[in-house]
Amino acid sequence: MTRYELRFLASEHDEVSAILDVPPTPAGGLVLAHGAGAGMRHAFLEAVAAALCRSSIAVFRYQFPYTEAGRRRPDAQPVLLRTVRGALEKAREMLSIPWFAGGKSMGGRMTSLAAADRELPGVHGLVFLGFPLHAAGQAGTERAEHLRRVRLPMLFVQGTRDKLANMDEIETLISELGERAKLHVVKEGDHSFAVPKRTGRASEDVLAEITTAVAGFMIVHVER
User: Least packed by Cβ within 10 Å: which of 21, 25, 140, 145?
Assistant: First the structure.
């Protein structure tokens, strides 16, 4: 694997950092946005990137301006959406391969909002690692209404104990979105995909399950 440390313009005022991990012969790539509370170097995203590279998937991770500046409060939505598009443009500039886009929690939702607003050039599909369907303890699907305008294939990876995504509502949403949406369920996983000790499953096993599902989804839609 080769790692590139990069910077790109998220807007005319904000330059942010990015990391591109490239396996020897990439079959495709994933532009991966971080969640609201952690940046691109979070241990989970590091582990996902390393595992996907072992499956011949390049991974482009990036910061939103607020994390780049060390702030805790996320930027306004227009800034987040411009950053998503800037990251995709930089990734395509770096590598001419089939690209997918998505992210953990908020990062995935911002990517989907960008896709619902207008086409994401060169993107073959979207990957959501813990889509934040609603606030904790407040069931509802308003945060997903824009997904009905997304024409790209979508993969939802969701834990059954995720407090930000009631499983019954996620399953109903996937059914309503039709053939373009697929769901991979991580049994007993919470919003961070941690599972209870009683399951006997190690975090490495859960990571392997998640990244196998993501790589499989990407390969299917690269070949179509």
Answer: 25
